[in-house]
Amino acid sequence: MAIVIRPGRPDEAALLSDLALRSKGFWGYSEKLLDSFRRELALSPSDVVGLRTAVAELRGTVVGFVTVDGSAPTGDLGMLFVVPEAIGNGVGTELFRHAVEVARGAGFRRLVIESDPNAEPFYRAMGAIRVGSTESGSVPGRELPLLEVDIVPIAAAPRTGPPRGRLTGGADLSG
Question: What SS3 class is residue 138?
Fold first, then answer.
């Protein structure tokens, strides 16, 4: 099952916004709490372009997306969402890797991630390091994990694999 990553299109803004809410619902949040996330998870057509949105497709169906925002040297991995039925099938991993390549191409040295607490283990497995916490933009008083991943330029990437917390193209992060 080949995952295809392509640029998001402005006309997909509503689809991607709905996908983000469905994905967030995977964690068992109540409808009331999900409703409080709705505004923060909404994308406009101009957001899709401005946030460097990439879409993952399986068999022609959109199953996830990722956004990368900011300007060098530090950017934000703002959103990474996968439809619940595709979680655990490598879609998130492919989207994360794509985001790193986009960040590297834009000259970023670091990506910052404000993670859902339930998604923190995924980001840590991808090489991100927790550097603190930040208050949720949707729920006052709710703390979110704040993570970072260093983006190593290809020319500077060690051949034997990077130390933890540094992500290079195609490197094994299991060490």
Answer: coil
Give the CATH number of the domain where residue 40 resides.
Answer: 3.40.630.30
Provide the domain count of the chain.
1
The domain in which residue 53 lies consists of: 3-167
Could you read off the pLDDT of 116-163 as tens digits, one per residue?
A: 999 999 999 999 999 999 888 777 788 999 999 999 877 655 555 444
Give residue 91's identity as a one-letter amino acid code. V
Look at residues 123, 133, 115 and name the one whose alpha carbon lies nearest to residue 96.
Answer: 123
Pick left, alpha or beta for residue 149 (phi over 0 → left; psi -120 to 50 → alpha; otherwise beta): beta
Q: How far apart are CA 75 and CA 131, in angstroms?
A: 15
What is the pTM assigned to this prediction?
0.84
